[in-house]
Give the backbone structure.
Amino acid sequence: MNYSFFFIPTILLFSLAGCKTGINTENPRLSALEKKIQHYYQEKHRDSMIMVANELLPLLKADSFAVRRGHVLVQKGIAFDILGQYDSASYCLYEALHLGETEKNPGLLARALNNIGILYFNLGKSSEAITAYERWLGMTKQQNDSVGIARALNNIGNAYMTIDKNTKKAIPYFQECITISNAINFNQAWFTASINLAQCLILNDRLEEAQATIDKVNKTGGNDYYADYTQALIHRKAKKYDKAIAIMEKIMGLKVNTRELYLALMNELAQLYEEKGDLDRALDYRKQYQTKRDFLHTLERENIIQELKISYETEKKELHIVTLNEERKLYLILTVVGGIGIFLLFIILILINRYQKLKRIRIEEQVKKLEQEKQLVAASSLLDGENHERGRLSRELHDGLGGLLTMVRLDLAQIKTNMSQESQKLDKAILLMDKSITEMRRLAHNLMPESLARFGLKPVLEEYCKGSDMVNFHFYGEELRYNEKTEINFYRIAGELINNALKHANATEINVQLILSESKLSLTVSDNGVGIASPKSKEELMTVRSRVELLGATMNIYTLPQKGTEITIELCKESKN
């Protein structure tokens, strides 16, 4: 009789919450991150564990943090292992093992070896898993760590039983684990080792010992569907089919959420009904079992059903069953091929549709970009023309009208020296002429200051701000030079923002802040006025926005009614002359 029992792989992991990783109370950030990764472990948020570990590891590079770094690597390796990313898990766990060996830290070594064994167990590599577990067992025995010894023994037995299917080698490990766990009241290890031991004893025809073991589990109140399942295996081995079936169908009714146990139950029930002679029920459970299997094993499922039917049919029906089976295979193959073809066609249609959408979006983006570039060219031409006209007017005022006014002023001064009378009127005329010349020079400077091209933005803007008692200038950074277009536009923007605050916001105090650096040019104008409320103020800001967009800069406005306004213009990565 071929018995196909289900093994319970009860791997005992170190509890992260119970490991002393040396949380640093002097560094709040480290402490918070270490608590967070333990919380995510308890809540089974594996991706979050990896993210927090990535934040922690750069903070633990110092040699004094080596042990703590190793524990974080173990936690990260556990997360990768559970997620099935075994290469990443192996890297983290072996790096933690190296740190444990370097620092000679037993706690870190134990955690690393335990989880390396679990990694190889999940990969189905028995010898590597057992090697790691046995090294861990040797360490726990040196330290007289009974809990660790019990865990290591259970895991070694699990590897022999589950991967190697060598139950005779597994039995002594489970027995020793049960003895130690019972002595220290380690109920979790005692329960899992007892279940595993009972299953090994069944496969070795030691039914009385297996029954005694399960009776002890049930007496301690630890019975659950795993214990019940093992009890059913005992009944099956003893050919008490009705009792075995009753227990397994009872477990099936519990709707257990363990996929492996659910599959094992269906498989066992199919074999039990077959042994009992109830072909219909056996076939029903066999179909359920095979349906839950991977789709790639469908053909194998049909062979198993066919073999089950052949064993209970006459020779006359055998040929008919084979024919039906072949037809089913052919139908299944045609169905699969047709389904795959339809699926591929559907995928191709989706990809074509997506490509067309992306192409249309790219065309729309290109059209939009061209329109924006056209608008920027128009705005640039307008502002360049404005700056050119301002420069021309500035030169004409300064060189033409300025020269004439200066000559008139000199003539008046000469007339005054030759006249004794009417000197007071001449003094007044000369004073007015001086004011006219000063105002003309101020207008020419505002239109296009010559010093901007010679000295740069900082000194010219500072001189401009000194023209009013209500304007304060602040500068930070280095006196770097930027290209002429950038400096002119920032100078105009500053002037428009200051004039807007004075004329429309009724401000009594204005602060102008200029920051020049290799990577950024920043201008901030703040006032204590009424805020941006009047239509005139908004119109002025439209001109400022045009200059900002032309430069490719950004503008942020913060304003509150009757509280004032703060406007910041920033241009990043500006190339210098």
Notes: Residues 1-25, 295-316 have pLDDT under 50 and may be disordered.
